[in-house]
Each structure stands twice: as structure tokens, then as C-alpha cells.
Amino acid sequence: MEHQTHYFLALALPPETKELLFKWREMLEPRLPFKSWVHPEDLHITLAFLGGQASFKQLTSIKKEMPEIAKQHPHFTLRLNGLGTFGKSDSPRILWAGVEESEPLRALQKDIYQACTDLGFSLDKRKFTPHITMARKWKTENSFSTNDLNEIVQPKEDQSLFKAEHFVLYQTHLNRTPKYQPLSIFSLS
């Protein structure tokens, strides 16, 4: 069965940050029974989820518009900021690594979001909450507890910093691992 393709724009993570998050996963996975864990190559910060609605014309427009946006934003530094969840507190949908508040990240996301809506995409209207999805779907009857999460993973100060240097237009392939294929890379100035 062919799965529907989805597209999204996301901030790419440097290899060292993906490696650190994979180390966190190795510590967390034996203790936290989530149904699926994100492949290290698929770790990212979503800036705009375009869904499966993208036409060829819209994708071409995205590829034309995004370099201009990238030029208007210098690269910047981000910091990982602990772990958290989305969904019910006792059986969460998503386990994520947080990212500290960042005005440059917020400004970049806002400009990308606006450009995508101007191109006719219907995007999620919820407040932007920068995060890196690590796992999905709690799969046990036992209740989930966030108490120990941040004691398990305590990054050193220098490990938690990383540079945001480019964002990517990705295509999702649900039947592959890794799932996300980069279609276009947009370098920040």
C-alpha cells in the first residue's frame, strides 16, 4: 500500500547534536516504552508542516521563495533545554527534546510560516513550540512519569549548544528508514 507523501520545512540539526540526542535515546529507550523512536537522521525542528496538500507548483514556489528568506536570517546558536511531552500526562503521544527560547528562531519560523500561507498552504495555527521529536505513542498500561526524565539526561553546558545554519524542505516516506528525504537545503546568511 502506498502511503500519502507529506512535506515540511525544518531546521536541520548538526551531526554532533544528533549524536548527543541518540545517546539520550540509548539511556531513555530501555526505561520508556514508546512505540516508535525517531531515527537519528530524522531529528529536526519543524518550522512549517505543509502536509500532503502540496502541488508541484506550490513546491516549485517554496523552492523559489525560501532562499530569499534564508538570506534575510543570519545563522544563530540554539541550546537544548531538557525533555518534555505532548498529549496526556500519563500516556503521552510525543516525547521531545526542548530548545531554549530564541528570538532568531522565532523570527525565522514566522517568516517561513507567512510565506507558506501566502503560497496557499493551510498551516497549523497553534503557537510555535520549538522541539525535537524523539519518540511517539506511549505503549503500555503503566502510567508515564516525567519526574526522572531530566535526571537521566544531563548534558554538559557545551554539549547542549548547537548552530542553526540551514533549513530544509523534506519529503516524508513512511515506508522507509530514515523517513525524511531532503529535497532542498536553504543556507542562512
TrEMBL record:
Residue ranges annotated as motif HXTX 2: 131-134
Residue ranges annotated as motif HXTX 1: 44-47
EC number in record: 3.1.4.58
Catalyzed reactions: a 3'-end 2',3'-cyclophospho-ribonucleotide-RNA + H2O = a 3'-end 2'-phospho-ribonucleotide-RNA + H(+)
Active-site residue list: H44, H131
Top EC group: hydrolase
Transmembrane feature ranges: none
Keywords recorded for this protein, A-Z: Hydrolase
Primary role: Hydrolyzes RNA 2',3'-cyclic phosphodiester to an RNA 2'-phosphomonoester.
Protein name (Swiss-Prot/TrEMBL): RNA 2',3'-cyclic phosphodiesterase
Organism encoding this protein: Fredinandcohnia salidurans
Gene name per UniProt: thpR
